[in-house]
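User: I'll paste a sequence; please echo it back and then give the predicted structure.

Assistant: Echoing your sequence first, then the prediction.
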Amino acid sequence: MNTPRLFFPFIIVFVFLSLLTLAAWKFSTHNNIDTKVLLVSNALFFSVAALVFFLQKKGFKNSNPNKFVRSILTGMMVKMFFCVVAVLIYTIAIGDGFNKKAVFISLFFYLIYLAVEVKVLMKLNKQSHA
């Protein structure tokens, strides 16, 4: 399976979550959820997912299984570090206007990207020399 076809689910999730956020703009505003935070977090999670996906795909192609395990652990550390730094930057930048609801919904976005990543890696594992 080629890389663009494997990466396509990430693009679908990004577009779906962006459209869902935009469609729920009135609902979000009514319930004090900052939709700008949701849109920015979705874009940032997509970027990190793309970086980690290509890192893991490169590790998967290596004949040494330890390389793949290291790429998985590195990807996990990158995503965890990214989440912590993003929340810290948001907290410092926004101050008293911190929106807990938006941050928790953003972390739900992270779980969606994680599920897609696992599904794609399992598909890659099935069709490869596992």
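The mean pLDDT is 88. The CA atoms of residues 33 and 102 lie 5 Å apart.
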